[in-house]
Write a structure and sequence with these properties.
This protein is α+β, with helices and mostly antiparallel strands. The chain has 17 helices and 35 strands. Helices cover 31% and strands 28% of the residues. A 7-stranded mixed β-sheet has the order 13-20-19-16-15-14-21. A hairpin with a 5-residue loop joins strand 15 and strand 16. Its EC number is 3.1.13.1. It comes from Aequorivita flava. 3'-5' exoribonuclease that releases 5'-nucleoside monophosphates and is involved in maturation of structured RNAs. It is found in: Cytoplasm.
């Protein structure tokens, strides 16, 4: 036998006990005999087989393995197996998050065994190490989180590799020549991972779609959608089905509904909105009370359970709002036409109608299907003008904020309705705040785009009285619908929007940071936490640290989600809450409409398991859409900064790490990083306790919340990364 082969065989035999245990551990539900173990080890000589038989007997004697059939062994059942979710941390190592365990399980790169970020895996836990870190090995991939990835293709003569954009993907994907699908070297592609042979370093895949050259606008936007598995067009059969729907208003259908066409009705939406899924009606009753109607497009009239439209809407679960486009949940024939409550058109609606007194208390309520007629459409700016000028006898909308770009006069009855409903909304909001609701009015970054989708400018969208008026009446409808079903006995299955109390550790971390800026929280109980959080959010308004603290405060909160198990909504201070008011853009609202109508017709309780699964899917898709929206904003910010490379910007230090300083520019909220290695004036070290980096020679300090000046060093559209050059705490004058 050649010497090197004999050496390899000796190594296998020396570690035989551990190797046998590893084989049995990898598939601990299957029994192996000595021949199968020998075959896995590629040992076929009698001497090696005898050693395997001996080792099996020794391990059995020690209780490490069990003989469950003649000559067939399995690992002794252990409490050390868990199922959890992979979170890749970097350098190909990761953690397994297990719901029942307090600490995450660390897994080194060699023990990940082809598990990828987000996968559900089975993990075997070793003994706890001296450092206190629980370590383990992935023994089985239960479910792949995703099999499609976006990346850049490198084409060789006989094959290709795709380098995946996602930094948590630690491997590239090998593409055989016959599966390149016409992709050219350097193009961005969507690739499917098809197989990962046991001895291969990289998984094998095929190119599904060529997205275009990196850095091009449409390529990058389509890449963002593809990365999260979000579509950007409807299948042809869905479009055909939608276009065949009869969207006419029929007398026979009107007779089945409450006719509210004569009630004064109007919509208030963003100036550029194309779908109007909610309208308000207002009437003064003979007893001096007000009848307020919240009318929602009756999407479920057209999207019936199980049809092609419903299947597609469920899969999408939400519309996706990117910086330069909307990817709608429903085709345009419905979202912008039949289900859009456009002015001077009759529409089928689902309504929540309230009799309310001057204190904004609900005296009576009614829920059901209606037919409505919108008398007018307003942009938020127009309604805000009416609210800000309450004493005007004639309400004229100036041309500079008018939807039509022309000055016009608002009908007196509509102006009075807006003013009265604004007064009621303010009472509803005050009541909510007193009950412990938290007011997150985070500034939204918006872009002024040219006709090619390039950013020409940045502006901030803030919520004013007109926005808050609409918000309060939508909240009222959502809360009252949830209460109406939630309080019924016997209990009925329903879709709730819930928000758990914040995690104590996250609140403690927030407290630790805000005290740097001179703020504090009172976390004695639920109500005092909410009250002091509101005070904090109010105190930081207009300050340099506002966006940083707003962001950190939101991150300290639990995530809102859809479920059939009601626990209330902490952030809104509601015991019952749902989503009823936006069925054009959210699938849970469609489910709520169907269930509400079913129960209004005295139907039996729906199947909880079925709706809980749909809730989980809706929450997952909402999360993906949010990530895509965030990525598109980041992309547009970097694109904007590419054209401003020679400018000095004032920013706030928003994060400090051992590798760099994160800075958010005050004028446009773009965030980038100054790498510590790029700070030329000194050698800086990270001080975790001080949230700072400190120069070892000069003692110069860059601390969280400091104002600094920076310049763009590199704006990478493909990696969506912005690097800054530090100019210091003050600009040097020439």
């Amino acid at each position: 036998m050649p010497r090197n082969k004999r050496k390899k065989k000796t190594n296998k035999i020396e570690n035989l006990s551990q190797t046998i245990l590893n084989i049995l551990r990898k598939d601990h539900s299957q029994a192996f005999n000595y021949k199968q173990i020998a075959a896995k080890l590629q040992l076929d000589d009698p001497s090696s087989r005898n050693q395997i038989i001996k080792k099996l007997k020794v391990l059995q004697g020690k209780g490490r393995i069990q003989e469950i059939d003649r000559g067939k062994y399995i690992l002794t059942p252990s409490q050390n197996y868990y199922t959890g979710k992979v979170d890749i941390a970097g350098r190909g190592q990761g953690y397994i998050i297990v719901e029942d365990l307090e600490d995450d399980i660390y897994v080194s790169s060699k023990n990940l065994n082809k598990a990828l970020n987000g996968d559900i895996v089975e993990v075997y836990v070793f003994k706890r190490k001296k450092g206190g870190k629980t370590e383990g090995e992935v023994t089985k991939i239960v479910e792949r989180k995703r099999t499609e990835f976006v990346g850049t293709i490198q084409v060789q003569e006989n094959f290709a590799f795709v380098e995946v954009t996602d930094y948590k993907m630690y491997t590239d994907i090998f593409i055989p020549k016959n599966k390149i699908n016409g992709a050219k070297n350097g193009e961005k592609v969507l690739v499917a991972m098809e197989d990962w042979p046991e001895k291969a370093d990289s998984p094998f895949g095929s190119v599904l779609k060529v997205l275009g050259m990196p850095g091009e606008h449409n390529t990058e936007i389509h890449s963002i959608l593809a990365q999260y598995g979000l579509p950007y067009e409807f299948p042809q059969e869905v479009e055909v089905f939608a276009n065949k729907i009869d969207t006419s208003i029929k007398e026979s259908e009107i007779k089945k509904r409450r006719d509210m066409r004569k009630a004064l009705t109007f919509t208030i939406d963003p100036k550029d909105a194309k779908d109007f899924d909610d309208a308000l009606s207002f009437e003064i009753l003979d007893n001096g009370n007000y009848e307020v109607g919240i009318h929602i497009a009756d999407v479920s009239h057209y999207v019936t359970a199980g049809n092609e439209l419903d299947d597609e809407a469920y899969e999408r679960a939400t519309s996706v709002y990117l910086v330069d486009r909307v990817v709608p949940m429903l085709p345009e024939i419905l979202s912008n036409n039949a289900c859009s409550l456009r002015p001077n058109e009759e529409k089928y609606t689902f309504s929540a109608v309230f009799e309310m007194n001057k204190k904004a208390e609900v005296i009576n309520q009614w829920f059901g299907k209606t037919v409505t007629y919108s008398d007018a459409r307003f942009a938020y700016e127009e309604a805000q003008h009416v609210i800000e000028n309450p004493k005007e006898e004639i309400h004229k909308i100036p041309s500079n904020i008018s939807i039509t770009d022309k000055e016009y006069t608002v009908k007196p009855e509509i102006a009075q309705a807006i003013l009265q409903m604004d007064a009621m909304a303010k009472k509803l909001r005050t009541k909510r705040m007193r009950a412990g609701a938290i007011s997150f009015d985070k500034v939204e970054v918006k872009f002024i785009l040219d006709n090619k989708g390039n950013p020409e400018g940045v502006y901030f969208k803030e919520s004013k009285d007109a926005n808050k008026m609409i918000e309060e009446f939508m909240l009222l409808a959502n809360r009252r619908v949830a209460e109406f079903i939630g309080k019924q006995q016997p209990k009925k299955t329903f879709v709730y929007r819930v928000h758990d109390e914040p995690d104590d550790e996250k609140i403690a971390a927030l407290e630790n940071i805000i005290k740097r800026f001179g703020y504090k929280l009172n976390t004695k109980d639920r109500h005092s936490t909410a009250t002091s959080m509101n005070k904090l959010l109010k105190d930081v308004q207009g300050k340099k640290e506002q966006n940083l603290i707003d962001t950190l405060a939101i991150r300290s909160m639990s995530k809102a989600m859809y479920t059939t198990h009601n626990i209330g909504h902490y952030g809104l201070a509601f015991d019952y809450y749902t989503h009823f008011t936006s069925p054009i853009r959210r699938y849970p609202d469609v489910m709520v409409h169907r269930l509400l109508q079913h129960y209004l017709e005295n139907g039996k309780s729906a199947k909880e398991e079925e709706y809980e699964e749909k809730c989980g899917h809706s929450s997952d898709m909402e999360s993906l859409a949010t990530n895509a929206e965030r990525d598109s904003i980041k992309y547009m910010q970097i694109k904007y900064m590419q054209d401003h490379k020679d400018e000095a910007f004032l920013g706030v230090i928003s994060g400090v790490t051992e590798w760099g300083i994160y800075i958010e520019i005050i004028s446009n909220k773009c965030e980038g990083m100054v790498r510590l290695q790029d700070l030329q004036d000194d050698r800086y070290e990270f001080d975790r306790d001080e949230f700072a980096v400190i120069g070892q020679r000069t003692n110069n300090i860059y601390r969280l919340g400091d104002e600094v000046y920076v310049k763009v060093k590199n704006a990478d559209l493909v990696k969506k990364h912005l690097d800054f050059t530090m100019l210091g705490h003050q600009l040097e004058s020439n």
